[in-house]
Each structure stands twice: as structure tokens, then as C-alpha cells.
Amino acid sequence: MFTALLIDKADANPKVALTEVNEADLPEGNVRIDVAYSTLNYKDALAITGASPIIRSFPMVPGIDLAGVVAESTHPDWSAGDSVVLNGWGVGEGHWGGLAQRARVDGDWLVPLPAEFSARQAMAIGTAGYTAALCVDALQRQGIAPDQGEILVTGATGGVGSIAIALLAKAGFTVAAATGKSSETGYLRDLGASSVVDRADLAERGKPLQRERWAGGVDTVGSHTLANVCAQIRYGGAIAACGLAQGMDFPATVAPFILRGVTLLGIDSVRAATPRRLEAWTRLARDLDPAALDSIATEISLGDTIAAADRLVDGAVRGRFVVDVNR
Fold this sequence. Notes:
Residues 11-323 form the Enoyl reductase (ER) domain. By secondary structure, this protein is of the alpha/beta class.
């Protein structure tokens, strides 16, 4: 038996509770993992609170991330004792996820835990940090370089935004951070932001083309914010878009793309191929100071996740929640 956060749907409303689960009830997979840490992401919070229909089947263990040690494997790449990380691949949505003490998954979904990080630190990074690394990798593959100008990061105090700032600053970029939390200016500057922008300046409908300000952007917000960022990108610049905190809509025109040669790069972290994942984790291991994770991450227990999910959905959280699933 092991403890899991289980979401079930006996009637119209999902029920969430810490539950003792038999290992025989774990879903199919060729690798069984003793989970050490997970995270509480925005998507997890939506599933736990029922604010959005994230879960595709019931009962479900949420948690799109996990880090732990292989207990048993029939997969050729993994053996008992290997330290591994999992991000995405539909866990916590269609396959039981990381907010539990045990997991059984497809070994193709795993990557090795970088030696530079503990399991806790890897989950302080989690899908948010891994996505941030995918964004920075994409901008650099597009040819965006530090000497071309500032990079704007929206949703800057969130998990993706926080780590994107740290990675961009380490890569030599000048970073502007967009936030609605003026009290977090010191936090953002400590991460590497050179300036702070009021998110209200980006949140309403704007002109199709605006003053060219940014060489590139990392957007976690979507909707009018993304449209305005696109309208402010300099000629030949690019935006890596990976979130929809403001909305899924994109009320923009083609003007920035056909008149300024702007590129919009869609970043999918859920089903990214293994080479992209390894590239992202290599960047994180090389460029992210583990000490910076102390200011980004707050550790909670498995039992704390339900209350923390409400806070996360309400936007009352800075950085990341790391979940110790064994307390």
C-alpha cells in the first residue's frame, strides 16, 4: 500500500482526498518508481480544484512531474536504482501521475536525473523550468542573440517566468520582467531581470503594430498580452509562447509577422521528443544555479496540496511548489 492524492468522480463533482492505494492498482507501464518528490503545477491545480476539465479518466492521481528512483523495470534503458525525472506525457491527466509515493510509467517517458541536481531540486525546476529551458533553446535556435536587445518575459513571478529569467540572464541576455506584483521587484532582479514592466500595460487590446521594444520574448500568458508582445517585437525577432494564463485566445493581426518578420514559436513541453528534453535538462544543469532554486521553490507535503491548489489557481503564489510525497 502507498499514499496518493486521488481524484474520483462518483457524481457530477470530482472528490479529492489522500487515499491508501494498493500497488496492484497502479496503471500499466514497464517501469515502477519510488517517487521522492513531485510538484504542484498550474495544470495540477486546475485538476485538483476542478476549475478546468484537465482529467480525462477517473480515478486519477494528478501530478505532471515526478522525480524518484526506479524500483523495478523491464525497459532496456532503466534498471533498479536509477534516478529519473518525468515531465508531461499526459501523466496526471490520462495516466496516474506524480502526487503519490509510487508510480508505474512507460520508460520512454523518462530522462536521467542530472547529477547536478537532487530529486528535490529537479522538482523545484519541474515542467515549469524544463519548459523555460525549451523556450530559451528555441529562441537561440531561431538566431536571437544577446546583442540584439532585451528579451521580455511575461508572467515573470510564475515558475516558467522565474526560471526563464535566470536562464536568459545566464546566457547573457538583458531581461525585462512583466508582472502585476510590484512587491516582487527585488525577487525578479535577484533572478537576473534588468527591468520590470507592469503587466497592465500589456493586458488590454492594443494596436496591431506598436513601438519596437524587444528582440524576443517568452510568453506564459497568451491572449491580449501575447498579441501586444508580438506587436512590440523588433524586426526579425521571435517569441516563444508556452502558456495561457490570461486566456487561450490570440486577438492579434498578421501585421508583425509579415511587416516585421516576427516569428511565433509554439513550445509544447508535454510530448517534446527525448532529444529536446535532454537538451533542455543539459541547459538547466549547466546554467541554473541550484542555490537560486531556494528562492523559487516552497516545499509542501502531499497533504498540503489541496489547499495550495486553491492558492495557485487564485494567482496568489510566487515561484514553485515542491511536494515531498513521503510526508
